Amino acid sequence: MSEEKNKEEKNKKEEKEEKAEAKEVKKDKKAKKEDKQAEAKSGEVAGLEELPEEIKKKLEKKKAERSTKEKRAKKKKKKKAPRRVTVGKAYIKATYNNTIVTLTDLHGNVLAWASAGVAGFKGPKKATPYAAQIISRIAVGKAREKYGLEEVSVLVKGVGTGRESAIRALHNNGLIITSIKDITPIPHNGCRPRKPRRV
What we know:
CATH topology of the largest domain: Nucleotidyltransferase, domain 5
CATH class of the largest domain: Alpha Beta
Structural class: alpha/beta
Number of strands: 5
Largest sheet: 5 strands, mixed
Helix content: 40-55%
Number of domains: 2
Strand content: 15-25%
Oligomer: single chain
Low-confidence stretches: none
Radius of gyration: 25 Å
Order of helices and strands: HHEEEHEHE
Shape: elongated
Mean pLDDT: 85
Distance between the termini: 108 Å
């Protein structure tokens, strides 16, 4: 009899412990869910650098303009389930006059892009390393918010000043960089170059 009672007590204790563990797991899940909802409300993704105030204002202004346009031309569309893309490619085009960052999936379908003009830079400021850094931050923010992008292989084209700072900014904003490849086109003595300018 005493053995049976001991067994029953043990079983009851184990059941209580299992219930307590299940409650803790539920609490953790609930807390994570609330964190994600708070992130979604604030519109910010964890692990991203802060944008300067003036650029934030410009982006918000553009967003408001876009939303008003969308409201005007509203057509009923079927809602698609959000696509999850964790691995992709980052194309950085750094010319003397501009820098463009494009994030794609492995097939080359564009997830997010940004250029110096989008961030509100004009004239010679568009080709600066600072502009490239801000551009990368904007592109990564869009891709992580919408698709959950985590890992990219970087393909760099061009000889502009923003190429290295754009790559650094991708890493600083929480993307894992698996490889960096230079795909700048090089002529094998192709077209005849322009005559030099007389200044």
